Amino acid sequence: MTSTAATGGPGPARTLAFSTEGIPTANRVELWSIHNAKALIALDIRTMDDSPLAAAEINLHFPSIKLAQVRGSAQVIERNERFIRRHPMDVIGVFFALAGEAFFYYPGGFETLRPGQAVIYDADRPFMRGFHRGVEEMVLTIPREEYLALSGGRPLTKPVVVDFHDAGSSNRHMLALARLVREALATGTAGGAPAAAPLDARGVEASSIELLRLLVAGKGAGTALGYLASARCFIEEQLADADLCPARVADAVGISERHLTRVFAEEGEPPGAYVLRRRLERARSLLADEGERTTPIAAVAARCGFSSQAYFARVFKARFGVTPLAARRGGADTLILSD
Q1: What DSSP state is assigned to residue 197?
Q2: Residue 164 C-alpha from the chain's centroid
Q3: Residue 89 and residue 44 in contact, taking contact as beta carbons nearer than 8 Å
Q4: Cβ distance 97 to 137 under 8 Å?
Q5: Residue 302: CA atoms inside 13 Å, Cβ hemisphere, count?
Q6: Rounded CA separation 279/320 (Å)
Q7: CATH number given to 238-338
């Protein structure tokens, strides 16, 4: 297990990493259990057959929440009443299934979880989870006391399953939370060490908590920060749509357009201006990408939501000081110097 600190913003996030690679087969389950007890949630872990366990985990620890990226071969994990008495955690877990199918047993019922579904559950209530094809998931934990503050004091007595797999049928706020967790894990870690890009630890934690509030507290209980994170996620997914507008964003996150304007105003940028900036930044990235050298400028513009190539060229030059064609010819250095 390795441990470092990702210090890209106020309130550094501590980074941990574990892998069974290089560990003798006989010791893998024990050491995997020890890592999870220290870094995430204490679990009674068993393999499903005689095959050696293969597992890896990367963790980000913030002052309140913890994030993890978990991969492993087939296994069963459990916290029964006796185990919970010996290893109380006092946390609520959000488990985002990324691959495979898993069962989730709890007192009074069970759930079958598929990729693109998240389950929210109290880690100090008995459960058993099985991954017959292996596990690949992200996890967020938050202290129970903080969760109760978000939920208005309502305890979590059974698992809550929420979709996040696509923009059509998914819960918009869970989709935003999953994206935030994924990006934080990618930005804050690189093979168990801090990544080159800085991690805004305070921003990640605050936005995660407020998105969770939107999920558990009900309509009208959200804060500006939560709605902002949800709106930005929707915008990123819809940038290629030339018809994307503030009204559509507001409708997607469940607030009025006036409310959305106030939310963005607190960040000093109207929603329409934010959409334009993100479109131009995506276009800049594509133009600097060697793999996109043969993509026509018009196609780059269309992929970033510009229906008019002439308008795209005009606003791109106004933003970066060079035309899209000159930016492509000059590569990333030209774009950095002109930013």
Answers
A1: S
A2: 11
A3: no
A4: yes
A5: 5
A6: 13
A7: 1.10.10.60
Residue 205 to residue 19: CA distance in whole angstroms: 25
Question: Looking at the domain that runs over 2-222, which CATH code has it been given?
Answer: 2.60.120.10
H/E run at residue 257? helix 257-265
User: What's the whole-model pTM score?
Assistant: 0.87
Residues 6+ apart with CB under 8 A from 259: 227, 250
Distance in angstroms (rounded) separating the CA atoms of residues 219 and 239: 26
pLDDT tens digits for 256-310? 999 999 999 999 999 999 999 999 999 999 999 999 999 999 999 999 999 999 9
Q: Where are the domains of the chain?
A: 2-222, 238-338
Q: The tokens 């105003």 sit on which residue?
A: 265
* DSSP per residue, 303-326: HTT-S-HHHHHHHHHHHHSS-HHH
Q: What is the 3 state secondary structure string of 79-146?
A: ECHHHHHHCCCCEEEEEEEEECCEEEEECCEEEEECCCEEEEEECCCCEEEEECCCEEEEEEEEEHHH
DSSP state for residue 190 in the 8-state scheme: B
Instruction: State which H helix or E strand residue 162 sits in.
Output: strand 160-163
What are the residues facing 160 on neighbouring strands?
120
Could you report how far apart the first and last alpha carbons of the chain are, in Å? Answer: 40
Give the pLDDT confidence score for residue 336 in this predicted structure: 45
Distance CA 259, CA 81 (A): 46
